[in-house]
Design a protein that fits this description.
Blueprint lengths: L2 E7 L16 E5 L1 E4 L4 E4 L2 E4 L3 E5 L2 E3 L6 E3 L8 E5 L2 E12 L2 E9 L6
Antiparallel strand pairs: 1-2, 1-9, 3-6, 4-5, 6-11, 7-8, 9-10, 10-11
Length: about 120
């Protein structure tokens, strides 16, 4: 069953080290959302779950308001956030391409702990 996820590219800090505004969020229809490894680590700031979701995205996505397509991984930055089932997560992407078949695997990490 497909679910909609929202990806927000995050900008790298400028040369002075100041944070830059995030990019424009966009939606992608995930092919599948699976549970991640739920290894729990305990730290000073509270409990952290390593990977909560594994999201499988298509290799190509349609660019909104056009007839054009783009490789999904091209739309992802090295640092991006992904909203999965109302949970804001940091994402790490890996392309799995076997001759045009496969997808983009995103590991979603969400910090939940004590503030």
């Amino acid at each position: 069953m497909s679910e909609l996820v929202t990806i927000t590219p995050q900008a790298e800090p400028n040369t002075d080290g100041d944070p830059q505004p995030a990019g424009a969020p966009f939606d992608v229809m995930a092919m599948e959302i699976a549970p991640g490894n739920t290894v729990r680590r305990f730290g000073v700031g509270g409990d952290l779950d390593s990977v909560e979701f594994t999201v499988f995205l298509p290799l190509r996505r349609r660019i909104p308001d056009t007839q054009d397509y783009q490789a999904t991984v091209e739309a992802l930055t090295d640092n991006f956030r992904i909203l999965v089932r109302d949970r804001d997560c940091a994402g790490r992407a890996q392309v799995w391409d076997a001759g045009g078949r496969g997808g983009v695997v995103v590991l979603c990490h969400s910090a939940r702990g004590k503030a």
